[in-house]
Amino acid sequence: MTRPYSPRMPRCPRPAHRLANISALVLAVLIVALLSGCAMVRVNSLGPQQYFAMRRGDILSTGHLSAATQATLRVAALNEGSCQSAPQACIDTIATVRGLNTDQRLASLAELSLQMALAQTPPAGTPWSDAQFDSWLKTARYAYAFLFLGQRTAGERAFKDRQTQIRDYYNYAVQELAGALFLRSTSATNHGNRDPENQFIAAWTVHIDLREVRLPEGVRELSEVIPASRLSFAGLHNTYRRDGLGAELVAVTQAAAPNPASSTPNSAANSEPTAEGNPDSNAGATLWFAPGSRPFNEMPSPNVTALLSFGGGTLEQVLASHDVVFSAYDPYRVEDVELNGQTVPLAANFSAGYGIWLARSGFARQSLLSMLGRTRGIDRPRIYMMQPFNPDRRIVLMLHGLASSPEAWVNVANDIQGDEILRDHFQVWQVYYPTNVPILVNLARIRQAVQLTLAHFDPAGVLPASNGMVLIGHSMGGVLARLLVSSSDDVLWVTIQNQYLPEGVDLVREDERLNRLLRFTPMPQIERAIFIATPHRGTPFASNRLSRWVANLVRLPLALLKEIDDMLQSATNADSTQRAGKTIAIPNSIEQLRETDPIIQSISRLPISQSVCFHSIIARRRETGPLEDSDDGVVPYRSAHLDGALSEKVIVSGHSVQETPEAIFEIRRILHDDIEVFDSHGACARLGAN
Question: InterPro entries, alphabetically (predicted)?
Fold first, then answer.
């Protein structure tokens, strides 16, 4: 019989046979891969952070060698781990291995040397060994060789990421060496060994060139050298820099603020005559500066930029050289330098020195003590110069308000110095004065302090710095600024006569001491003024209960009270019986800001010089409501407004409006306009005033 048809089902191989097939396939793939010598390649997408880390990451930013240096190591059959464990051997290999072009070699040597130097560097403030100096000097030398003696010029590499990295290695090495050289020099001086122009370190000779740096007058030694890159400031809104070559440093000197102990009214050192030739030696003990006095302080922490340059004209000579010049520059005066025939921009930091000065000044506490008449305050004005005196730059003179100090101008001054155009045309001076003293006394002292400072630097008064000055005054400082550009004629004589003297007692108009307080003309050096939240006609705030209570706390120096009283008594025609037992009440600064005060009423009517352009910046607390009825919480609009101002900017703010970005922008606008007008006409005319 024939069997019926049935389809055959396929039989599954045994498990052993299946494993054998898979193993054979894997083995075949491995054999093919080994015989072909090909690597397995996969592709991944990079995000923006990975992109920049790959292109810009290096030993300074990430703590690992850059991608470019790692590629160089692979060419030399090295890896990052071996270079960390034996850095010098790695450097020696890269210096001699074939297959690298000059730029690759020098750039990698600079980064590898920096890696070794960082690993060997002791904690900050610890003196270095010769070996540590050698590592950092070699780092700077390799970077210098790349920048100036490589295959291409710095200009040809302008868009190369690698050049930016090597410039940073150079700048950082110079920064670290500057601090270490300062510590070494200080230690050598303390041990009686000092060569200010040369330091001999291991096989290196370091020549010190400080000819381009001008320290404050009378300063010969520094107390600190601080890298600007390590500083961060609270309260300083912006840090202004200039990219370029060199280490940005702050050279800190000893004096950070006026010494209150030396300005005690009764100290012998402060016994100053009222006026030249006055026979009364006691008359001017507190009122005036003696002729030849120096009522100014230059910036005690100037900004400095340092460079290292290496001897030799060829690449081989530079790499073999152990002769190096450490030079320092004032970045306000020097914008670019020439090294090895190439002109490069000089790096700069224009904010760090200013921030250090304010942070260490103690002005906030000192100004409050001064207003209350306490010890450790100040008793007379000082001029603070924010940079070394520059004969070719005009002066912006700033006057702060009541119970305040130069700290009121922190961001105004910083933004002016940070503006490249303004920095090229102006230098900033700040007046620091005791705000408890009567306005007319402060006025006379400030006027004399400015004139003495100008005469010190420019006796003939012919330099650009002595002309075209711009005043900026806030609050009571604005009142003083206005008086510096006003004429008094006989107005104040009449006010004192009518308001402060008994009936029948007259003032002697020929009294020279009183004349210096009550009769004045505009300072000829000033061509523009900016009044900010200024109570030109006083303020009702000075009469409220709180202000009256504070005014009662304000104390004037006893010596000053006695001197003014004696001056007023001797300047009258009253006989001794009329004067017996009587004193003339002398108002303090808060009392003089009351709307009803006779002095503030009189000075509000004094005419401003027609040759001075002036502007108003006024604050109002609320945006709504009539402008004429507004105020900033302290000063009403009706008092801050001035007819004849070339511009009036009203900003929604409290009384400290000078701190706002809107006010700073307006100040900068005015100064930029001033540059155009002054450069074209050499003066300011109030034509077309509103």
Answer: AB_hydrolase_fold
C-beta of residue 428 within 8 angstroms of C-beta of residue 387: yes
141 and 206 in a single domain? The answer is: yes
| CATH of residue 429 | 3.40.50.1820
Average pLDDT across the chain, whole number: 85
The residue ranking higher by pLDDT, 161 or 426, is 426
Q: What is the pLDDT of residues 24-70, one digit of tens each?
A: 666 665 555 555 555 667 777 767 666 666 678 999 999 999 999 99
Residue 19 in domain: no
- Please state, in angstroms and rounded to a whole number, the distance separating the CA atoms of residues 94 and 73: 8
For residue 575, the tally of other CB atoms under 10 A from its CB is: 9
Clarify whether residues 57 and 140 are in a common domain. yes
164 within a domain of the structure (yes/no): yes
Over residues 76-102, mean pLDDT: 93
Query: Cα separation of 516 and 333, whole Å?
Result: 38
Q: Give me the pLDDT at residue 512, please.
A: 80
Q: Which residues pair with 486 in a beta bridge?
A: 608
Both 343 and 405 in one domain: the answer is no
pLDDT of 689 over the 50 cut: no
- CA angle (10 as vertex; 6, 13 as ends), nearest 5: 150
Indicate whether 342 and 413 sit together in one domain.
Answer: no
Domain count, the chain: 2
440 and 532 in a single domain? The answer is yes
Q: Are 71 and 63 within 8 A, CB to CB?
A: no
The conformation of residue 11, written as its DSSP 8-state character, comes to P
Q: Determine phi and psi for 555, rounding to 5 degrees.
A: -125, 130
Indicate if the pLDDT at residue 401 is higher than 90: yes
Q: Are both 454 and 329 inside the same structural domain? A: no
Does pLDDT of 6 surpass 60?
Answer: no
Give yes or no for a contact between 145 and 167, defined as CB atoms under 8 angstroms apart: no
Q: Cα(215)–Cα(163) distance, rounded to whole angstroms? A: 33
Establish if 498 belongs to a structural domain: yes
Whether 573 is covered by a domain: the verdict is no
Question: Long-range pairs for 121-124 at CB < 8 Å and ≥24 separation?
Answer: 121/176, 124/179
The residue type found at 146 is F
Same domain, 410 and 327: no
Check residue 268 and give its pLDDT.
29
Which of the residue ranges 92-106, 331-345, 537-551 would you say has the lowest mean pLDDT?
Answer: 537-551
End-to-end CA distance of the chain: 130
Q: What is the mean pLDDT of residues 645-671?
A: 98
Tokens representing 622 are 């609320």
